[in-house]
Amino acid sequence: MTDVAILGELAYWQQTGIRVGAGLAAVLLVAGTLVYLHLFKLVSFMQSRLGPMEAGPFGSLQLLAEVGKFLQKEDIFPRKADRFVFAAAPFVVLMSTFLLVVVVPGGPDAWFINSELGIYLAMAVSSVSVIGILMAGWGSASKYSLLGGLRATGQLIAYELPLILAVMGVVIQAETMNMQGIVQAQADGEIFGWGGIGNPYILTQFVAFVIFMIAMQAELTQTPFDMPIAESELVTGYMTEYSGMRFLLFFIGEFATAGVFSAIASVLFLGGWWAPIPGLGFDDNVWNLLGPLVLVTKVVVLTFIIFWARFSLPRFREDQLQQLAWKVLIPLALANIVVTALLKIVF
Amino acid sequence: MTAISDREQLSYIAAQAADARVNVEIETEGMTLNIGPQHPATHGTLRIVAKLDGEQVIAADPIMGYMHRGYEKLAEVRTYPQVTTLINRIDWVGSFANEVPFILAAEKLMDVEAPPRAAWIRTILFEMSRIANISLFLGDMGLQVGAVTPAFFAFRDREHVLNQIEAATGGRFHPNFDRIGGIKDDLPAGWIAETKRAMKKIRSFCDEIEGLLQGNEIFEARCRGIGVIPADVGLSYGLSGANIRASGVDWDTRRDNPCGLVHNELDWKVWTHPDGDSFARFWVRLQEVRESTKMVDQLCDGLPSGPVMAKVPRIIKVPAGEAYVETENPLGVMGYYVVSKGDLTPYRVKIRSASFNNISITPWLLKGVYVPDIVTILGSLYFILGDIDR
């Protein structure tokens, strides 16, 4: 790949530096955009209010003000808290987000790692956040936190399964687990012999897409699957005892993970960084600049769906939530895999 | 060979035995969860001590009194017109309705009757405070089961009613408008037309809530069959208002025992629901808001002319005697037992507020439910803390 031509001349620490910087930007900038667009503005318009209007044009700098506020707050530890576990939990949660983003390609050469097992790695590290949430729930020494942490664990493990099974359909169709390969398979695909827009897998794998979106909503613990947070019963679940900077990390982690999961979903189902622009081939260097923008656009669209659902639906009870996972989503995902595999053999 | 039903029976017994063994081997310890006094679900300072086994409630005990303000005692050192200022603050989202039964009790003791126009305006404001109160519930119920947006819609549309109450009385939250022998002032010009517009908006708000919550599968899954109150249990705990009507008891003081207010001159319906669960309580309240808007429309159309104040002495001395008047307030039946010894101040005022009785069923109702259902049930019982603690 041409990546070697550009980055290969640099020393290893320089390459790593660039990748770390790009990774931070990919996670934090996208998270900030999502907070402003969706949490501040979209929701305000849904609820017939304006949202923040004072800081910056149309309140666009509100998030910076909020970050400044959170950084100034006292870092409170509950008296009986398991101090190390309590302090480390937000970092573990945020770490899983950063581990996830490394597999997402932003262009033909703009990637962090180009592993043959890209999506496999993503599914594996996405569960790391469970450990962080359980740590937060246990370490806080609060009953609400404990209940929230245990609910989160049960829920995230249950929804990991439909998530992975939904991905299987795409993997079977693309014949690769490489994220770049999945993008290429969609770009090169044809719909009944017509290759005008490639073949984004949302068309052929629509069932898998719906399952993935629902499971993703649950993985992100967004309403209607926000039992672990459930502000009307568990105050804020595993985050109850956190304040200041550590709460901010949870807060950013929530939106960053939403962004990264949507990026993975758009790679799997919407063609990733590739868009059907006439005159541009798959390997053109322009994509290295244009690709990330296309990807972010798709991410904004997918997260719009997430937050739309979040602010219009009530929440499930945890038994109903488990029923949905085990009785509906998993059988459906398995059926989808079987049908996909059969069609793959037939055609 | 055993019959199928026998085999089912046997496997059931075997499963029970296995369960029992597991329960002995893994002895789980209960957990006491202290919900409140500061907790988002109790919207106020109600404290519920719940003994949990996992997420299941074994026993729940409501502890009240964190907001006791001693209104019954305070009323004894205030003259009759001054008492309304206090009792406004009992159910603070439907304030005007609190004044009405007390004033009616005082009028009953003094043998004064408000002129027809005053009675009609009283009824209008009474019903409007019901709308202001219950429309808040409709949004809040969504909030309790996790939907954030309906609450904002409720606050937005409740504003129309509050504006009208403010235009007539001067106070949005605490009108303090009812007087012995009538009401303080006549309605301002243009108020009737504006009120009718507000009622239209409330009706469309009800449709909106119906689409957002009542038709939502998740909302139904969270509310149907949760917190079922059979009619006899509800009656034995002294439940009233929409809570008992949702259990199928067709009892509404406005229709069955009208005193002073003019509900029996209107065309309206008492809604009941046979189920008695959280969903039924929500549904009945939604219909009640609709019914109230229709009542206000009719009252505005048929408003008689005349004075709004009967002839009463400037310094009110209530003759000795006892009177009990109860009305159907937004939260349920509210009654005042007023004892007078012929002084400027009442000798004793006993307030029967609806929420105090409604919340008394919670230990019975919360037994065996799951933690999320606590919130659904408390939300659907709908209490205002001031109405519990007084």
Plain-language structure description:
The complex is a heterodimer of chains A (347) and B (390). Residues 1-5 of chain A have low confidence and may be disordered. Helices cover 66% and strands 0% of the residues of chain A. Chain A has helices at 2-7, 12-46, 62-72, 83-101, 118-125, 128-139, 143-174, 179-188, 201-204, 206-219, 244-269, 287-310, 318-346. Chain A has one domain. In chain A, α2 packs across α11 (244-269), α3 (62-72) crosses α11 (244-269) and α7 runs antiparallel to α10 (206-219). Chain A is mainly alpha-helical and 347 residues long. Chain B is an alpha+beta fold and 390 residues long. Chain B has helices at 4-25, 71-75, 80-87, 95-110, 116-144, 149-169, 191-214, 217-223, 231-236, 242-245, 253-256, 278-301, 354-359, 362-365, 371-381, 385-389, and strands at 31-35, 47-53, 56-63, 178-179, 182-183, 321-329, 332-340, 348-352. In chain B, β4 and β5 (182-183) form a beta hairpin. The mean pLDDT of chain B is 85. Chains A and B meet through α7 and α13 of A and β1, α5, α6, α8 and α15 of B.
Terminal CA distance of chain A: 31 Å
Tell how many strands the DSSP assignment of chain A holds. Answer: 0
Structural class of chain B, by secondary structure, is alpha+beta
Going by CATH, the homologous superfamily of chain B would be Cytochrome-c3 Hydrogenase, chain B
Please give the domain count of chain A.
1
H and E string of chain B: HEEEHHHHHEEHHHHHHEEEHHHH
Largest sheet of chain A: none
The number of distinct β-strands of chain B equals 8
* Count of alpha/pi helices of chain A: 13
- Let me know the largest β-sheet of chain B: 3 strands, antiparallel
Radius of gyration of chain A: 21 Å
